[in-house]
Design brief:
single chain; about 220 residues; alpha/beta; Rossmann fold; three-stranded antiparallel β-sheet; 8 helices; globular; EC 3.1.1.31; 6-phosphogluconolactonase; hydrolase; 6-phosphogluconolactonase activity; NagB/RpiA_transferase-like
Length: about 220
């Protein structure tokens, strides 16, 4: 299940090429394509490589699997990462759909994002990272909304996540498992021996709920 790459640069090139192929296919078939990105360290080099690829970015919509309930000015904002590392050069022509909104709560922001994300589904390409606690998106062990977020029969695509879990332990907005499964293709990007061990030998964590399903095609890309 796990595809091994010698280093971060090789993995980034492979992930960017795979994403570009999927996006081109979406553009050819439907005239538009969607890319759901992720935050963290692993996707940043992928974004650097992908933004240089020549495709019709003006017909691509980009959003996120999750974000902190923080404005883009925060260094912890996933939107900031995507805007600074992906939506540059050729990819600056893409449309970005934010999960964050200047609302009183992450739940209110999720209510705004819900119909917008549903309108984009099914997504052509989904990038996911994974935390050392086995979380994907902001479906984090210990969160009071994790169980609802992982319910494959749940009625929500986007949920608010209260503060107190994750690093940093701030409030968040997250796609649910049903939303993640609305992907035509998904890449899980992981790095280091500890994360590989979680994927290969762990069980019962959010990442396993995603990897053990049969609805969305998933590849796991790993580098030491």
């Amino acid at each position: 299940m796990i595809e091994t790459f010698a280093d971060e640069a090789v993995l980034a090139a492979a992930a960017a090429a795979a994403a570009a192929d999927v996006l081109r296919a979406g553009l050819a078939l439907r005239g538009h394509a969607t890319l759901i990105g992720t935050g963290g360290r692993s996707p940043a080099p992928v974004y650097d490589a992908l933004r240089e690829i020549d495709l019709d970015w003006g017909r691509v919509t980009v959003s996120l699997s999750d974000d902190r309930f923080l404005p883009m000015t925060s260094p912890d904002s996933n939107e900031r990462l995507v805007r600074e590392r992906l939506l540059q050069g050729r990819a600056a022509a893409a449309t970005f759909l934010s999960l964050y909104a200047n609302t009183p709560s992450p739940e209110a922001a999720a209510d705004i994002a819900e119909p917008q994300l549903r309108a984009l589904a099914p997504f052509d390409m989904l990038f996911l990272g994974m935390g050392e606690d086995g979380h994907v998106a902001s479906l984090i062990p210990g969160s009071p909304v994790m169980e609802a977020g992982l319910d494959p029969a749940g009625g929500r695509f986007v949920i608010g996540v209260p503060a107190g879990v994750g690093s940093p332990p701030v409030a968040r907005i997250s796609l649910t498992l049903p939303a993640l499964l609305a992907a035509r293709s998904a890449l899980v990007l992981i790095r280091g021996a500890a994360k590989r061990d979680i994927v290969e030998h762990g069980s019962g964590l959010p990442v396993h709920a995603f990897l053990k399903q049969s609805k969305a095609p998933v590849r796991v890309l790993w580098t030491p």
